[in-house]
Amino acid sequence: MQRYNRIKEDKTTYILDVTQKKDDETLIVTFGDGHKHTDVENTDANLQKLESIMEEQMKDAIKREAIYKIRTLIATGSVLATSTGSIALIGSESMQSIQANEFLTASATILGFGASIIWLIREHSRISELAKVKYRDQNIDKFANIESYTHALDSSSNSMKRLFEESQNPLGMLNIGQYKKSDLTKIIKEMEREETLKEKGITYIKRK
After folding, report:
1. How, if at all, do strands 36-41 and 26-31 pair?
2. pLDDT category, 114, cuts 50, 70, 90?
3. Does the pLDDT at position 173 exceed 80?
4. Which of 49, 52, 88, 112 is the most buried (most CB within 10 A)?
5. Do the Cβ atoms of 158 and 169 come closer than 8 Å?
6. What is the pTM of this model?
7. Which among 131, 5, 106, 108 is positioned nearest to 56, based on CA atoms?
8. Higher pLDDT, 80 or 21
9. Which residues are CB-contacts of 180 (< 8 A; sequence separation ≥ 6)?
10. Burial 63-80 (b: 16+ CB within 10 A, else e)
11. What angle do CA 54, 51, 153 make, to 5 degrees?
12. Helix, coil or strand: residue 79
């Protein structure tokens, strides 16, 4: 998941990711400052606790979604403000004749553009992730009853189908990086198609 901690100091305890080591006996827990705990026991109890912690982190982030939207707008404005000058400088034939003091200004402009791009990408990633989780939560009852829908995963990728087959909580925060909002909308659309036909009295063959 993205990092949404409120203050800089929080990143030392903010959980970003949990992955399973190849030995299947231990988990790797990655924190917001990049530190990793590589000796966490791989148990259902530990996985549920870590899942719960990350869900709480996400709930807090969703409450402050407006802040990230404002940051995205500011980042977009910063990109636009620095892009014109940077493109003009890079494409200028007189770039070679820039004096020392002008070179510093030009360099700062180009670096500012690069920093703005990185900032925009980061904020956009946060907004996209928040939208994905909100959509998941809005349709949580349908996803919880996915086994009741014969064709729910018909339009899904093989990796998405495996996720539902192999994970006890496929759409939980431990798997948040393995799917996109578009993956979820495909499932909901298939469910809606099936519901529409059933409402009209159309019957399906029961699969073994």
Report:
1. antiparallel
2. low
3. yes
4. 112
5. no
6. 0.77
7. 5
8. 21
9. 132
10. eeeeebeebbeebeebbe
11. 110
12. helix
